[in-house]
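Before relying on records like the one below, remember that each one covers exactly one chain. Contacts with other chains, cofactors or solvent are not represented anywhere in the record.
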Amino acid sequence: MDDLERKHFMKTLAVFKCYKNYALNKVKKQALIYDKLSENHKALIPDFLFNISKIKQCIENNNKFIDFILANSKGEIFEEENPLTQRDETIENGDQGDAGVKTRFSITNMDVERINSVLKQFVRDWSSLGEIERKQSYEPVVNEIKQIFSPSDRKLSDIKILVPGAGLGRLAWELANAGFSCQGNEWSLYMLLPAYFILNFPFQTTVFRRYTWDCVATVYFIDTAHNILEYLDTIWNILVPGGYWINFGPLLYHFADIPGEDSIELAYADLKKAINLKGFELVKEELNIHSSFTQDPNSMLHYHYKCVFNVFRKPLLKSN
């Protein structure tokens, strides 16, 4: 691990540790605004302070969960060189950044918002509240793979499946639990640390390192690229001839309108044409599937996406 990698690891750890103060500061601002209200207005919202106290308790519970994740992270994720053993160094003499915590790293509110995203992802992937979203997006992919690869034709453990952009690992776990040889791939340390915890602390899993795959499963993933065409190249190159690519999700394009970031943003019709020109065969297509992502079922604000579900096949012999 070089110095730049170590610095990134340690900053990520510091961001996790900033969560509690950051979240409590947001609640504190709401309480200060409440204090400025007239007594007549306060009388109209008699439960406000009680609800604030419940939110504070939820923040405390979330922080205990985060501490548990960090305490049970092991050296394997860092190839046996574990920077988490230096966790006391992450919050020490330094400037107080946007997040309101004194650290030796420059941490912004946007950094700590990533922890909120991780917590929401936990709800989606590993709680009963996320079951509806998992049924919307993961279940069609898992069912399709089970239909394509029958245990009567081939031993399931010999079927190699890659899940890029695996996040907290639920889709990869579902496929491994079904008997397939599955590997999740994820680049974000904000996801890798908690994914390592959830997959290795309560469960025992096996990590498979493969270079070619019988199947690639992508869920809410292909629009995360700066250049989506590079994803097509990679998926084509790692699939065995006759292998399948199964995709579910929208085209949101994560880097759209971000200053300093390139983003090739294709309409679905153009993307499908590019996939065809690459050489993939379209086996199945379903359009306008309504799906949500990390939504609070109790919130009045919900975002819904019109998703596509595709099954593509790499021909046994390339046709062009």
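The first helix runs from residue 3 to 35.
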